[in-house]
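User: My collaborator sent over this chain with a note saying "see what the structure looks like." That's all I know about it. Can you take a look?
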Amino acid sequence: MILEAFAEYLHAADQSLPATEVLSRWIKERLDAPVLTNVDRVVHCEISIAKVTNKEDCKEQSGKKLAFKGNSKSGRQLLKSLFEYCQSYEQQKWARYVHNLKASDFRAGELRDSN
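Assistant: Without extra context I'll predict from the sequence alone. Here is the result:
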């Protein structure tokens, strides 16, 4: 249910953005919005914005540092699953890109932009 809601958001998002950045925006929007659906209810209960102590542990969004944490074991598992979904999505995008390459796209050891 939650992965499905995020997947719809991810597919509608700008494809040039990394999936993890889209995930950060989606979670932030869910936490900032009033609870209207079961997805919102679960996100509000299981995930919170954490205090950032290490700059490498967060994502930047509009100049703000964001980090999310699971409020319980199930919240941590939810974040892990969402993150793994993002990684899988990026790997799939890369595989499609590589699959569409031809030998002629390479010239003198450099990759030509095929777009």
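A starting point for your reply to your collaborator: Residues 2-100 form one domain.
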